[in-house]
Design brief:
Layout lengths: L6 H25 L3 E6 L7 E5 L2 E10 L3 H7 L6 H13 L2 H17 L8 E7 L6 H6 L14 E5 L8 E5 L1
Length: about 170
Amino acid sequence: MVTELKSSELEKIALEHQAAKIFMRWYEHDSGQKIRHIWHNRPNKPDVSCRLEGKRLDIEVAHLYGSEAEARQILGRELDDKTVDELRELDQKFKPDQRLLRALNRILVNKSHKSYKSKRVWLVIRNAHPAWGAQHIKALQHCIDVPPNHPFEQIWMVGDWEGDSGIIQLFP
């Protein structure tokens, strides 16, 4: 039986594919290793799979927005008064670097508790927040808290939404 996907699920899949393609392009450029073909996986597996030097590699994709309110704003969703208030409160309560670290460390903790039916899994986090870039992430890399027990062979970040600033390896 074929099930139809909701538009939000289709959008999520499209965003995951975009992030994976940007990462793969940079990884191949920086390492010289061929990384090809991408397909989407079902739940219990990482989001996408590809071939790295002919061997299967599974990639779990996450997007770094800062907060749910900022995600809605960045993705162009209509904002209600409560969301606007949340955004103002974030601006007053935390400096941009603090927000970046809190959001990134939250993703790393949440993803560290997952398990996957896969031999090789990399985590790729795409920075979606326009106020942050690869240079911010590199400057704060010593403050990023990668949990000691996680299922990932490697952890990477795409420095910005379009991928113009390259990728940053967070682990190992």
